[in-house]
Design goal:
This protein is α/β, with parallel strands linked by helices and about 300 residues long. The protein contains nine helices and eleven strands. It has helices at about 5-15, 20-25, 30-45, 60-85, 100-105, 105-115, 170-175, 220-225, 270-295; strands at about 50, 55, 90-95, 120-125, 140-145, 150-165, 190, 215, 230-235, 245-250, 255-265. Strands 3, 4, 5, 6, 7, 8, 9, 10 and 11 form a nine-stranded mixed beta sheet that branches. Strands 1-2 form a two-stranded antiparallel sheet. It is elongated and about 75 Å long. The N and C termini lie far apart (about 60 Å).
């Protein structure tokens, strides 16, 4: 069994589809299917159960998965050790993040890291849901809720803060807003309730707000609604420098603190590229959140 066989196996195990695995491997689905069939023939047992829903690991496939992942980490570690002799990082690192962090924090942070390491390819995956590291949707992830299970490491990066905010043009013509009870006279902007994947993002329930006039699963869309005078919404302090027409309201009544966490595969600690990017990423996010919040 060679490394290329294991690469194909890992891609199918993670994608649960020949076509999706083929895109990762840059091979057509038929070729991937033949490689899987050959590997199963060599091992004398099926590694996947095939169905209209896709490819699911058999018991034998699940056993092989952990060995294949260790082999992958060994290959990555060896390549990084050779490439890192110059002190420069190279290769690809995919970073998953909630859309608020991905849109307003990571562009600055990743740009700075890439300038220091021109051979490094950084990819930002912005998803309004939990990033699945086990399927390698990303090499590491920035989340607001640390997972409780899995072969992962969790590092708290920093706290960040949120307050109610509205467009100044909206406030000029809106009913008075001097206490939390006054919110009942205002339209509220927030998340689509059944699309909140992290309980930490359910800000409005704790305020007793049951009806949201304008809603989206994306922070950037919510921000656009508030900026257009659609009402009052919970807004990250680190986003406010990008929205100069917004003004925080009821700051003495409502102040929310949340945290960013860096989640990594447990075995990736041996891969220098991932370790160094994780260190620079955490430091950069911490500094950028502090810089932007100081501007409010």
């Amino acid at each position: 069994m060679d490394w290329d066989d294991l690469r194909v196996f890992l891609a199918v195990a993670r994608a649960e589809s020949l076509s999706r695995a083929g895109k990762v491997l840059r091979r057509d689905a038929a070729t991937v299917g033949r490689r899987v069939a050959k590997l199963e023939g060599d091992l004398g047992q099926p590694l996947f159960t095939k169905s209209p829903q896709g490819y699911a690991l058999t018991e034998a496939g699940a056993r092989l998965l952990s060995h294949a992942e260790r082999a992958e980490q060994a290959v990555l570690s060896g390549a990084d050790e050779l490439a890192g002799q110059s002190g420069q990082l190279s290769g690809q690192v995919r970073i998953g993040a909630t859309d608020g962090c991905a849109s307003y924090i990571l562009p600055q942070v990743c740009t700075a890291i890439q300038k220091e390491h021109p051979e490094l390819e950084l990819q930002i995956v912005a998803l309004p849901r939990v990033i699945n590291l086990s399927k390698r949707e990303a090499d590491m992830a920035i989340t607001v809720s640390p997972p409780q299970t899995g072969r992962i490491t969790v590092q708290k990066i920093t706290d960040y803060h949120l307050h109610l905010a509205a467009a100044r043009e909206y406030l000029a013509d809106a009913p008075p807003l001097t206490c939390l009870e006054d919110l009942r006279a205002h339209p509220v902007v927030g998340y689509i309730q059944d699309m909140i994947f992290y309980p930490e993002l359910d800000f409005l329930t704790g305020m007793g707000i049951e009806k949201v006039a304008l809603a989206s699963n994306l922070v950037s869309v919510q921000l656009g609604m508030v900026r257009q005078g659609g009402g009052i919404g919970i807004t990250h302090d680190f986003i406010l420098p990008f929205a100069q027409n917004l003004e925080r309201v009821l700051t003495d009544e409502i102040s929310v603190t949340r945290s960013f966490y860096l989640i990594r595969h447990e075995g990736d600690a041996r891969v220098e590229r991932f370790t160094r990017v994780a260190e620079e990423l955490a430091r950069g996010i911490r500094d950028e959140v502090a810089r932007l919040e100081a501007m409010v």
